[in-house]
Design a protein that fits this description.
It is a single chain. This protein has about 120 residues and is an alpha+beta fold. The chain has a single domain, classed as Sufe protein. Chain: A, CATH 3.90.1010.10. It has a 3-stranded antiparallel β-sheet with strand order 1-2-3, with helices on one face. A hairpin with a 2-residue loop joins β2 and β3. α1 crosses α2, α2 crosses α5 and α4 packs across α5.
């Protein structure tokens, strides 16, 4: 369990794929009102595959770490695969038990990513 917590802290302190993506083909943002998290995600999609992904925003450790881990996981994946991802996939990826009140924090990145895909089809 501590190994997972360390990984979450590392992703929070040093988020991967953080910033703006100039050549984005898909982009969306959203917020988690209950926690104050705010996130924007940019994707570069080519021939149905995610070639590049970046996110930016501010939020709690869980939301930033989950978004960071998600960007690493979806790079190179088919858009259709990402659209099928659920809350369970995020919890499994994080490797720790997520309380009901923190679930919106953990899944904000996925929500924004799927929103970007859907809005730009």
């Amino acid at each position: 369990m501590d190994l997972y917590r360390e990984e979450i802290l590392d992703h929070y302190k040093h988020p991967r794929n953080y910033g703006s993506l100039k050549e984005a083909t898909h982009q969306a943002s959203d917020r988690n009102a209950s926690c104050g998290d705010l996130m924007e995600m940019s994707l570069k999609v080519k021939k149905g595959k995610i070639e590049a992904v970046k996110f930016k925003g501010e939020g709690c450790a869980i939301s930033i770490a989950a978004a960071s881990m998600l960007t690493e996981k979806i790079k190179g994946k088919r858009v259709a695969e990402v659209q099928l991802m659920t809350d369970k996939d995020i919890v499994k990826m994080l490797g720790v038990k997520i309380s009901l009140t923190r679930m919106k924090c953990a899944t904000l990145g996925l929500v924004v990513c799927q929103k970007a895909i859907t809005q730009n089809q």
